[in-house]
Specification:
By secondary structure, the protein is of the alpha/beta class. It has a single domain, classed as NAD(P)-binding Rossmann-like Domain (Rossmann fold). The chain is built from six helices and ten strands; from the N terminus they run βαββαβαβααββββαβ. Helix 1 crosses helix 6, helix 2 packs across helix 3 and helix 3 runs parallel beside helix 5. The chain is globular, with a radius of gyration of 16 Å.
């Protein structure tokens, strides 16, 4: 497949690029600073673009089978960027007639299991209060997805870890795994790539956790 990855210099983004190349896909990595992308490969094209300008993004998404995005706030001060940049990606995709889009969101944005342990519900409230602006941004991003004509999927992991890909994780379409407290960035990327051609995940939020 021909894939485009936004946020390719982030933790999940670099894993998306690396794993997609290893699987034999052609990858276009859209970045603001090419020097921060440590992944290399014969089937990799690195594009520097203004992520706030939909017109500049059109060549990067034209003719692609799917677009994957790890765009989002890296700190509280960046809250709002996920919605703004995803809106640009959506406009570029719609202009080029590209439909499949997968983005990284977060577990607190979606519904929690009805039988979620008390400790998990308590931690969710605490984290939600501390990172309120970030989650408001992600919820607004998901609202933009819902209004779009794309075949979107919002992938919602809990607290992220840096660890090698295992391929052993749980996913719940439209919900979240019970007592799912962690997910490795590499496994979130693995899950996203597996969902690209999974029709059950289209126009759905998908919880991913160990």
């Amino acid at each position: 497949m021909k894939l485009t990855v936004f946020g390719a210099t982030g933790g999940i983004g670099q894993e998306l690029v690396k794993q997609a190349l290893a699987a034999g896909h052609e990858v276009t990595a859209v970045v603001r600073d090419p020097a921060r992308l440590t992944v290399t490969g014969e089937r990799l094209e690195v594009v520097r673009a203004d992520l706030k300008d939909p017109e500049s993004l059109r060549p990067a998404v034209a003719g692609r089978d799917a677009v994957l995005s790890g765009l989002g706030a890296r700190k509280k001060a960046d809250a709002g960027i996920a919605t703004e940049l995803t809106r640009s990606v959506l406009k570029a995709m719609e202009a080029e007639g590209v439909r499949r889009l997968l983005v990284v969101s977060a577990a607190p944005v979606g519904p929690q299991p009805a039988d979620s342990p008390m400790v998990d519900r308590l931690m969710l409230k605490i984290v939600g209060a501390v990172l309120k602006d970030v989650y408001v941004d992600l919820a607004a991003m998901e609202a933009e997805l819902a209004r779009s004509v794309t075949d979107w999927t919002s992938v919602r992991p809990p607290r992220l870890q840096d660890k090698p890909v295992t391929g052993s994780y749980r996913t719940v379409v439209g919900g979240f795994p019970r007592a799912g407290r962690y997910a490795g960035r590499a496994d979130v990327a693995h899950a996203m790539l597996a969902m690209v051609d999974d029709p059950a995940t289209v126009k759905q939020g998908v919880g991913v956790a160990y």
